[in-house]
Amino acid sequence: MPSSDFETIKKLITYRRSVFPPSYTDQAIPAELLIELLDCANAAPTHKLTQPWRFVVFRESGLTRLADQLAALYQRHTPAEQFLQKKQENTREKVLRSGAVIAIVVSYSDTVPRWEELAATACAVQNLWLATAAAGIGGYWSSPGTIKHLGDFLRLANNEECLGFFYMGYHDESPRKPTRKPIAKKITWEG
């Protein structure tokens, strides 16, 4: 018989979903809570204990710096015939609507294959996502094309790469199950 812990985690996993900045309220996310959430991320599995994840947290005035940087990069790296003023404004707005934005960084150790470092970092983000959902905070992981130009801004080392941003904020949306194909169609039994 499953324990209540199992039922709790199953519910969190089932109802975890992407919640986007237009749904965020103005309620601030305390720095202490962000540390607790990132501590959950830090508990992710990691081969040979490389712990390849690193996070850069933008909040308060840091959100404006990030919004300005992303908007400038969009303008600088978008061909004139593809540039949309509305997209540049939306780039800024989604950062500024967030309670916090976390840059997701992987540090490659060359101790294990790179895909394992990526997988471990993705596990850390999933832990973060589940913890934010449990705390009543919505979030989503976005990887805009401009992340490849953020090395200096994020002070990345030569062995580091930004995998995107985790946008987060309190919200008032009702929980809902995700749309998924039945698991029975994704399992092959060998015994």
From TrEMBL:
<dbReference type="InterPro" id="IPR000415">
    <property type="entry name" value="Nitroreductase-like"/>
</dbReference>
<keyword id="KW-0560">Oxidoreductase</keyword>
<keyword id="KW-0521">NADP</keyword>
<feature type="binding site">
    <location>
        <position position="47"/>
    </location>
    <ligand>
        <name>FMN</name>
    </ligand>
</feature>
<feature type="binding site" description="in other chain">
    <location>
        <begin position="141"/>
        <end position="143"/>
    </location>
    <ligand>
        <name>FMN</name>
    </ligand>
</feature>
<dbReference type="InterPro" id="IPR029479">
    <property type="entry name" value="Nitroreductase"/>
</dbReference>
<feature type="binding site" description="in other chain">
    <location>
        <begin position="16"/>
        <end position="18"/>
    </location>
    <ligand>
        <name>FMN</name>
    </ligand>
</feature>
<keyword id="KW-0288">FMN</keyword>
<dbReference type="InterPro" id="IPR052530">
    <property type="entry name" value="NAD(P)H_nitroreductase"/>
</dbReference>
<dbReference type="Pfam" id="PF00881">
    <property type="entry name" value="Nitroreductase"/>
</dbReference>
<dbReference type="InterPro" id="IPR026021">
    <property type="entry name" value="YdjA-like"/>
</dbReference>
<protein>
    <recommendedName>
        <fullName>Putative NAD(P)H nitroreductase</fullName>
        <ecNumber>1.-.-.-</ecNumber>
    </recommendedName>
</protein>
<feature type="domain" description="Nitroreductase">
    <location>
        <begin position="13"/>
        <end position="170"/>
    </location>
</feature>
<keyword id="KW-0285">Flavoprotein</keyword>
<dbReference type="GO" id="GO:0016491">
    <property type="term" value="F:oxidoreductase activity"/>
</dbReference>
<comment type="similarity">
    <text>Belongs to the nitroreductase family.</text>
</comment>
<keyword id="KW-0520">NAD</keyword>
